[in-house]
Amino acid sequence: MSNMDMAHMDMDMGDGHMMHMGNLKRKFWVSLILTIPVILMSPMMGMTLPFQLIFPGSDWVVAVLGTILFFYGGGAFFSGAKAELEMKRPAMMTLIAMGIGVAYVYSIYAVIANNLFHVTPTVNNFFWELSTLIVIMLLGHWIEMNTVMNAGSAVEALGKLLPQEAHVQDAQGNITDVKLSDLQIGETVVIRAGEQIPADAKILSGTSDVNESLVTGESKAVKKTTDDTLIGGAVNGTGTLTATVTGTGDSGYLAQVMKLISDAKNAKSKSENLADRVAGWLFYAALFAGILAFIVWLTVANLAVALPVAVAVFVIACPHALGLAVPLVVSRSTALAAQNGLLIRNRNAMEQVNQLKFALMDKTGTLTMGEFKVNHLVSLTADLDEQAVLQHLANLESGSSHPLATGILTAAKAKGLTVTAASDTHQETGLGQFGTIDGTTYGVVSVNYLDQKHLTYDHDQFTQFAAEGNSISYLLAGDQVLGLVAQGDQIKPAAKTLVTSLKRQGITPVMLTGDNQETANKVAASVGITEVQARLLPEDKERLVQEYQQKGKVLFIGDGVNDAPSLARADIGMAIGSGTDVAIESADIILVSSDPGDVIQFLDLARATHRKMTENLWWGAGYNLIAIPLAAGVLAPIGFMLNPMLGAVVMSLSTIIVAINAMTLKIKAVPTE
Questions:
Q1: Can you tell me which family this protein belongs to (predicted)?
Q2: Whether 315 contacts 129, CB under 8 Å
Q3: Catalytic residue, candidates 12, 59, 200, 362
Q4: Residue 5 among the catalytic residues
């Protein structure tokens, strides 16, 4: 398991001020416990309720509890407000700090005035508002932090299924049970029928059906055999597997995903920034209205009238509902996404969806299965027969995990060839793989390489094989073309549905691929794409992303390997296939199950999330927009001042509406053709 403890993460409490996750949880519960007696013993907005407990000295008890709450629970908000003010950008923390600061100072004044000086009429205190605001704001930030945990709920469940021990087999075949924490990469483990797989591994021998549903969301068991990869936490079926450990602890798949989720907490979405801006506007509005109300009432009445009115304005601006508006929606949205195989690394991406104009996507592994089958194997020299060509290709590709390499190795295995890795292997990105075999340097290259080097090849033969939808690779020795292999791929079932859905949403699908033009055109035509760019290097794709960005927002969908620059450059980078390091580093969204149909779900969820955030911000701010001027006495000339009871009811109703609205967020099923 990863050493990242989800209970000890930090969260941003306001432009750089960090609150420890454990502290946040503890502060909330302690503040909640202190708030209960405060609510029972203090009036709400000056109004005593039937259930409240008032006795001689209760004001002093409330003052003591309120003071502890103010400094213990509210301290983080003042630190956040300080950071915002230093940046000259007052926002949520400043608004909260103003509300609880004014409420506390005035409430202490009220307790002293009422109990020591016995002023008449008595001065109302705001300890009820102070305590509830602190608790609700801490709850909102705790919910926001728990968003990280909700996003990882599916993979956390996987982590809980990891066994306590692994069966390690030594070179002599002896099996010893060792603690999972002591398991090392490179060790051989035996996974018996029905057991949980202890770590990421590669199968050495055995065949079984493996249940990876907690990772991919797919309930169907996946057949696994020699050289296939296993994910730690998946459940083995009826067969016994022997495998080499490839990842444990921080290097395992689960740890990578946990790191991904941990990183996500620091990415504040635009709507969260919008919530901060709304809070900033309310801060200025309340400050202006409060000062103006104080001056006006001091002029037309006296200090005894002006001061309570100004304080009421500052306190009534407390953003109870606003503090929950975004965290509740984000929490619900991220949990829904995780349940449906979507891991959101950067929530900013969700804010870009409504402006999307183009969806650029890779072909292999995105629109197609990425499982290549050798359809044609041709020797172009008398010195090598077809089997020798395949042997050389397999030797060159033995260390590669590229889909084309996998197809070649599968064909070599089917022919019974013994693969011996070439030495001094190196790759020229987008062009080919090179290495030394028996003292001679060979290469397996694309047609782009042949054209760049002006090497001779049969163009008619290339066109014929490519027109069938094949990806074609050539075997070289120096400048001599020795042979070729043509491999075919299958289109993913949901690819056409994705393209159709994008068009319906006004998003233009564009296919970018390093493959040849003929194959690209055939795949594009099959799924309904008319804009195709082929024979591209990774830097070409990134350049095209930038060119399309000149026309509008761009979504890029790729496999997270050669597409890393484009994933990072696009407004939304979406990686098909979650197990690669580069996907975690470069993409904003990870599609765990590698299903193009999940792109549709993400777009629908992102739009619904943005809509709910906007609605909640209006509900949260709407109360303040109405209540602040009424509390300031704007309608006093016609005999109306905001009734404390009405203000309390509307404030509570606004908070309830925000919570209910967030919980109604749902994710749509993927439409079928």
A1: Belongs to the cation transport ATPase (P-type) (TC 3.A.3) family. Type IB subfamily.
A2: yes
A3: 362
A4: no
